[in-house]
């Protein structure tokens, strides 16, 4: 999952240029509170004015390898994006002492050169923290991130264990896709979690520790062989399980709010246990081993008013039907 969470101005932007005789002019889209310098390929911010009134600073897709020390003075800043730059561990380290920024709500360090979770303990009201697409091998350091956090993104790293998340009691979105995780664990305290994204890992079994409020789960491209483990997720609306080794549909009857079910690219031979899913809208069954269309009509009878998609391509039952 690749969410673009860069800031957006609430005021109409002014267009102008910043620069000096030695630097090419940089066209700037800004207001008194929002500065967007996305995709300017800047190596530094020497040619850029940083008004003290800024509440949002977006430096996405540049060539920055260090932090401009003037950022420390932006005491009104709420959102800072350094996405897609060249920031490494030593370059981000000064931010741990910039106490004037302690009111920051959103910090995006996605797609840089980080090897570890940076020290962001000074941000006492942080809501969004994104360190995806780096080279982080462990979640050590998350224990120092504010317990106010609502969205945490650590996808496309080298993480092997889910840890130091117990204090995130307000967390609503957790993204740990494309890591090296083998075990689902330590979710017990995440009672407000709404979305859990764990695609492209090495997980063999489902263990959700009773996440009864969760609405979206992705375990695509793992090593699952069973669907058991979702029974208590009674608020679940979207479930993505494609590209696993699941041979039987089961444990679904209690998921009466489910709208989207994706079990494509597995080893299913029949469609089962979905009779109670009256809210089902999308059912993805393609690339399985379902031999007959018989029984499918009965399985989806309760959801006919809602159902808009049943995808069965690349199953034996479709080949047989086409041959007739």
From TrEMBL:
- Sequence ranges of Acidic residues compositional bias: 19-30
By its UniProt entry, which InterPro entries does this protein fall under?
Leu-rich_rpt, Leu-rich_rpt_4, Leu-rich_rpt_typical-subtyp, LRR_dom_sf, SDS22/Internalin_LRR
- Pfam family name, one: LRR_4
Domain of life where this protein originates: Eukaryota
Has keyword Repeat? yes
Repeat keyword on record? yes
Q: Which Gene3D superfamilies match?
A: Ribonuclease Inhibitor (3.80.10.10)
The record ties this protein, via SMART domains, to: LRR_SD22, LRR_TYP
Alphabetically list the UniProt keywords.
Answer: Leucine-rich repeat, Repeat
Q: Where is this region: Disordered?
A: 1-30
Q: What is this protein called?
A: Protein phosphatase 1 regulatory subunit 7
Taxonomic source organism: Rhamnella rubrinervis
Please spell out the taxonomic lineage of the organism that makes this protein. Answer: Eukaryota, Viridiplantae, Streptophyta, Embryophyta, Tracheophyta
